[in-house]
Amino acid sequence: MTRIGVYPGTFDPITVGHLDIIRRAMHVVDKLIIGVALDTGKSPIFNLGKRSEMVRTSIDAELNGDAGRIEVQPFSGLLVNFAQQNGASLIIRGLRAVSDFEYEFQMACMNNRLAPQIETVFLTASDSKHYVSSRFVKQIARLGGDVSAFVSPNVARDLQQHFAHPTPGSSS
């Protein structure tokens, strides 16, 4: 029986912190579906297609041996519905700090109420990556800083291009 997990997020952009959680989640599941969320209540700077492309490219570049066990899929709507449609029994969530826990715990409880057959697994951020967030990466890139330590080379290029030539309607 294949253990399928879903790791959802906005991934705007995907960071080394996300990649760390993905790498570690591969020890828990046989197949991991990265769910790139459309409706998150956030205002992403990259559209859904571009975010999905950045995730796939980063995974292919950074997770050599495991890349074949990882799918990247955009999704909209309830996470538990997406997980059920893909035969997942686990939802993977990363925790950077105690401040993340309350929100994530409430979401896990609600998801459990909606779909009790799907478990949520929390993976804590590695010591060397717990401070990395997409929000900070975007802020550094927006101000012309070097983000190469926090994202894959393809994402660093995409951020640099975005902030050099913002697309109409973007929140830069």
Describe the structure.
The protein is of the alpha/beta class and 172 residues long. It has a single domain (4-164), classed as 3-Layer(aba) Sandwich (Rossmann fold). It is built from 6 helices and 5 strands. It has a 5-stranded parallel sheet, sandwiched between helices. It is globular, with a radius of gyration of 16 Å.
Structure summarized in a few sentences:
The chain is α/β, with parallel strands linked by helices. The protein has helices spanning 16-25, 48-62, 79-85, 98-114, 134-142, 153-164, and strands spanning 4-9, 31-37, 70-75, 90-95, 119-124.
Helices and strands: which structural class?
alpha/beta
Main sheet specs: 5 strands, parallel
User: What proportion of the residues form beta strands (DSSP E)?
Assistant: 15-25%
Shape: globular
Count of folded domains: 1
Helix content: 40-55%
Order of helices and strands: EHEHEHEHEHH
Biggest sheet strand line-up: 3-2-1-4-5
Per CATH, the superfamily is HUPs
